[in-house]
Design goal:
The chain is built from five helices and two strands, in the order αβααβαα. A two-stranded parallel sheet has the order 1-2. It is mainly alpha-helical and 113 residues long. This is RNase H type-1 domain-containing protein. It comes from Araneus ventricosus. One of its GO terms (molecular function) is RNA-DNA hybrid ribonuclease activity.
């Protein structure tokens, strides 16, 4: 939604995307390997934004009392209670791709225990 808002209004010449999810940052960093519809939609929006803005992608630690991270977490929790828009079912290849990515990331980054 934030990308759509920025595409519509073009308010900023510099955009920072901060995430406390390493998997999201890795997903965006490995854009060449993305083949699912939702991922491609995000990348097309980012590509369009790159023509008019400078984009920055940064991981931030979670649960360390960063003011805006706590605000974003609260908004995300609030968003999970809102009615969801209809999303088309995933194809077999999209499901396979997501599972393959999950296994690949798990294999490259084993749990700390």
């Amino acid at each position: 939604m934030a990308l759509d808002f920025e595409l519509e209004h073009q308010l900023f010449s510099e955009i920072w995307i901060l995430s406390d999810s390493r998997s999201v940052v890795q997903y965006l960093d490995n854009w060449r390997d993305v083949s699912d519809r939702r991922g491609m939609d995000i990348f097309n929006k980012l590509k369009t934004l790159c023509s008019s803005s400078v984009l920055h992608l940064q991981w931030i630690p979670s649960h360390v009392n960063l003011k805006y991270n706590n605000i974003a977490d609260g908004l995300a929790k609030e968003g999970t209670t809102m009615p969801q828009a209809y999303v088309e079912p995933l194809t077999y290849l999209e499901l396979y791709s997501r599972r393959k990515d999950f296994v690949y990331i798990s294999w490259r980054h084993p749990p700390a225990h």
